[in-house]
From TrEMBL:
<keyword id="KW-1133">Transmembrane helix</keyword>
<keyword id="KW-0472">Membrane</keyword>
<feature type="region of interest" description="Disordered">
    <location>
        <begin position="429"/>
        <end position="450"/>
    </location>
</feature>
<keyword id="KW-0325">Glycoprotein</keyword>
<keyword id="KW-0732">Signal</keyword>
<dbReference type="Pfam" id="PF07714">
    <property type="entry name" value="PK_Tyr_Ser-Thr"/>
</dbReference>
<keyword id="KW-1003">Cell membrane</keyword>
<dbReference type="GO" id="GO:0005524">
    <property type="term" value="F:ATP binding"/>
</dbReference>
<protein>
    <recommendedName>
        <fullName>non-specific serine/threonine protein kinase</fullName>
        <ecNumber>2.7.11.1</ecNumber>
    </recommendedName>
</protein>
<keyword id="KW-0547">Nucleotide-binding</keyword>
<keyword id="KW-0723">Serine/threonine-protein kinase</keyword>
<keyword id="KW-0418">Kinase</keyword>
<keyword id="KW-0067">ATP-binding</keyword>
<keyword id="KW-0430">Lectin</keyword>
<keyword id="KW-0812">Transmembrane</keyword>
<dbReference type="InterPro" id="IPR021820">
    <property type="entry name" value="S-locus_recpt_kinase_C"/>
</dbReference>
<dbReference type="InterPro" id="IPR008271">
    <property type="entry name" value="Ser/Thr_kinase_AS"/>
</dbReference>
Length: 450
């Protein structure tokens, strides 16, 4: 058969394969610049590039690209439409609308902000906590119960489960997601993800084996595990965590409920601030705010917040000062008792300070094993932090500086605020419409004229 005739028959066969997709009559293989064709009625023909029509190569290229594009679209469609909540961990984009009026400048930038947050399905969390078994319950707050759990990868977690009948808890859930998802600091508890499925809403945190500071510092046996070096490290760690919240993060955050039970301890006794359910964000030039819904804990609230609803970074400074005194003494501010007077821990410390006996405040369990200069410096910083007037309290940057520099001369404190429980209880007569809860955690609303 003539070479030209073979070329014509091959050309026709190629088009039959492409246009009619008659794979029974021919197969085409592309190899570089050659096309190898097998046809039922022809022996193998090696057609050189000079006999390969350009439009044939173009059609083959378009066909292959179209098939690839269809495959890619199918994969994308499957990814978008796949069932949710089936895997142990995924990622969601959670639209959160800001509710606080404390940060209008921040709201102008984003009225509704998408937060990329890892999520866990309900089955995984339920299995991790052994169906939320009572023996795994490690805490309870206004948000709801907290459970210890273990994920399939053996990672221990703490699960905060929103109480379904708690309106306050829902607000706190949204608030905590907004705040914690944006914050990263070694002295803040780390949020690992959340679970939002049906009526269930849960936050999943790193689990801290030593739980909260109050479990140690107010237990006469356990606080033997807290020598002065560890106590001082805890004080400094809390101060650095607060400094990050007030100044070093891109948001200015007021915690509003700082207390020993909200300070968690890791295996090395490093402190981590937790529970941001009632925290507030300040934006722009705003430095203080007033609320009619006062939520806090007796013994830790600043005078201006407890009596009139005013809060600022200096409110957290006051709470910090109380915590420092409790760490030094091993005694609670609220419910403090001394047979010689009716002061609380703040008033007792002030009395010792005036009598030049401040060293007597130190927990007797320490048995003299501490740095006297360090202890006296901490007491002085604490008294400065609990001053009655907000302008006389230091900022947290100043607090960290004073604690970290032994040679810095500190200012002399004046009489602090809330030196007795009676002065704190004046809230009863100065506010109306209050709803006092049992225990020392309170929530109440003050009535205001319009």
């Amino acid at each position: 058969m003539a070479r030209a005739e073979i070329g014509k028959r091959l050309h026709s066969a190629v088009w039959n394969v492409i246009l009619d997709i008659d794979i029974r009559n021919a197969l085409i293989f592309c190899r570089g610049c050659r096309i190898l064709v097998f046809e039922k009625n022809l022996s193998k023909i090696d057609l050189m590039n000079e006999y390969q029509p350009k439009h044939v190569r173009l059609v083959i290229a378009i066909t292959m690209l179209s098939a690839f594009a269809l495959l890619l679209l199918a994969i994308l469609a499957w990814y978008k439409l796949r069932p949710k909540g089936r895997r142990e961990e995924d990622t969601i984009s959670m639209p959160i609308a800001h509710e606080s009026k404390s940060f209008p400048h921040y709201e102008e930038e984003s009225q509704e902000e998408d937060l990329e947050l890892p999520t866990f399905d309900l089955a995984t969390i339920s299995a991790a906590t052994d169906q939320f078994a009572l023996r795994n319950k490690i805490g309870q707050g206004g948000f709801g119960p907290v459970y210890k759990g273990e994920l399939p990868n053996r990672l221990e977690v703490a699960v905060k489960r929103l109480s379904q009948n708690s309106g306050q808890g829902l607000r706190e859930f949204k608030n905590e997601v907004i705040l914690i998802a944006k914050l990263q600091h070694r002295n803040l508890v780390r949020l690992l993800g959340c679970c939002i499925q049906g009526d269930e809403k849960m936050l999943v945190y790193e689990y801290l084996a030593n739980k909260s500071l109050d479990n140690f510092i107010f237990d006469r046996i356990k606080r033997k595990l807290l020598p002065w070096s560890i106590r001082f490290n805890i004080v400094l760690g809390i101060a650095r965590g607060l400094l990050y919240l007030h100044q070093d993060s891109r948001l200015r955050i007021i915690h509003r409920d700082l207390k020993t039970s909200n300070i968690l301890l890791d295996r090395e006794m490093n402190p981590k601030i937790s529970d941001f359910g009632i925290a507030r964000i300040f934006g722009g030039e705003i430095t203080e705010e007033k609320t009619r819904r006062i939520i806090g804990t007796y013994g830790y609230m600043s005078p201006e917040y407890a009596m009139s609803g005013h809060f600022s970074v200096k409110s957290d400074v006051f709470s910090f000062g109380v915590i420092v005194l409790e760490i030094i003494s091993g005694r609670k501010n609220w419910g403090f008792y001394d047979p010689d007077h009716d002061h609380n821990l703040i008033g007792h410390t002030w009395k010792l300070w005036n009598e030049k006996r401040s060293i007597e405040l130190v927990d007797d369990i320490l048995d003299g094993s501490f740095s006297k200069d360090e202890v006296l410096r901490c007491i002085q910083v604490a008294l400065l932090s609990v001053q009655q007037r907000t302008e006389e309290r230091p900022t947290m940057s100043t607090v960290v500086f004073m604690l970290s520099n032994e040679n810095v001369e500190l200012p002399q404190p004046k009489e602090p605020g809330f030196v007795s429980e009676r002065s704190a209880m004046k809230i009863d007569s100065s506010s109306s419409g209050q709803d006092f809860h049992t225990g020392n955690h309170i929530t109440f609303t003050t009535a205001e004229g319009r």
